[in-house]
Amino acid sequence: MMILALSAFLGLALFAQMTSIGLVLARRRRPGPVPLPGDGEGTTILRPCCGIENHLDATVRSVLMLDHPRYEVLFCVARADDPVIPFLRGILADYPDRDARILVGDERISTNPKLNNVVKGWNAARYDRIVMSDSNLLVPPSYLDEIEHVRDARTAFVCSPPVGTHVEGFSAELEAAFLNTYQARWQLLADELGIAFAQGKTIAMRRSDMEDMGGLAALAAEAAEDAAATKAAHRFGRRVRLVRRPFAQPLGYRRFADVWRRQVRWARLRRSSFPLAFFAEIFTGFVPAAAAAIALVAMGELDFWTLPLLAFVWYAAEYLLARAYRWPAGPSMLLAAVVRDLLLPCVWVEGWVGYTFEWRGNAMSTNDDKELLPKTTTL
């Protein structure tokens, strides 16, 4: 019975790995949006900013150079003394013809500092179409067309997972290994299966739809706005869609401690919002499959050479996926993927044993009884 169970698990793990990569590879070949004459409807982009981030000049300029006939960009900053404000002003001076403004202030409507930051932009938005777009995204000129390309009458939110690019150093490679061929791949697969969930890097919605769902406050029902968006869509019989190809997040240099803290934070948020799905995460990655294979080798059911063959097939598929999408790929990417898989069980355990985390200097909690309000200043 044990041999049968181990063999079945190993087969299922390999099948899931190869099938998920195959379906995401097939998705890449779908035609993209065809630019059409403007329909007269504009879009408001809410861009929350906090501090000077890696590649910020490029990411800010990217949202000011969209190939779209009618849109405004509202850069939302919580504190008047944030160094990003003069930085933004300097860039905006290069684009005097763009409809872009900096809004400063903080209104506490939730424990989520991002929502508290963007609520002023939400109230000031001119258009019904609203996109919350993180400041560290490097968006293509077709950004808004890509979003509208997948929207239909049932869609409440259009989102995109980030993919790590412009990596500098091994820790950045490691973060890209988490973001790209692991997290983005599984999120794109979920979209293929019709069970996509929202991702906070880009959340596109209609104000009129949000009013039916309770307004912007509906996104404050969970510690993470993307989890709240997913649940709100399901509650009202709507769905979440992901763009055809994810948008880039230039990583630059990363410290391992920062990569670790981000993964633990996201793990605790997933555990809090979707505990059953988070429980299943322990069965992903190469470690469980390798453990089953090692046990079968020890029992004499598999030859030892099947272990390196399994590893080769497993990671070669990830490498091909990264190459096909032009994500960072190379020997260091493969090493980072191995280290990532060794860390996944540790991140999973940390997701269960803790409930507090820090986000941009704000102490937060996933535990309702021990909730920690973010440290903000109202201006």
From TrEMBL:
Entry annotated with the keyword Membrane: yes
Membrane-crossing residue ranges in chain numbering: 274-297, 304-322
Highest taxon in the source lineage: Bacteria
Family matches, as SUPFAM superfamilies: Nucleotide-diphospho-sugar transferases (SSF53448)
GO cellular component terms given for this protein: membrane
Membrane topology type: Multi-pass membrane protein
Keywords: Glycosyltransferase, Membrane, Transferase, Transmembrane, Transmembrane helix
Record EC number: 2.4.-.-
Pathway noted in the entry: Lipid metabolism; sphingolipid metabolism; Sphingolipid metabolism
GO annotation terms (biological process): glucosylceramide biosynthetic process
Gene Ontology MF, one: ceramide glucosyltransferase activity
InterPro entries hit by this protein: Ceramide_glucosylTrfase, Nucleotide-diphossugar_trans
Subcellular location: Membrane
PANTHER family linked: CERAMIDE GLUCOSYLTRANSFERASE
Name used for this protein in its record: Glycosyltransferase
Native source organism of the sequence: Ectorhizobium quercum
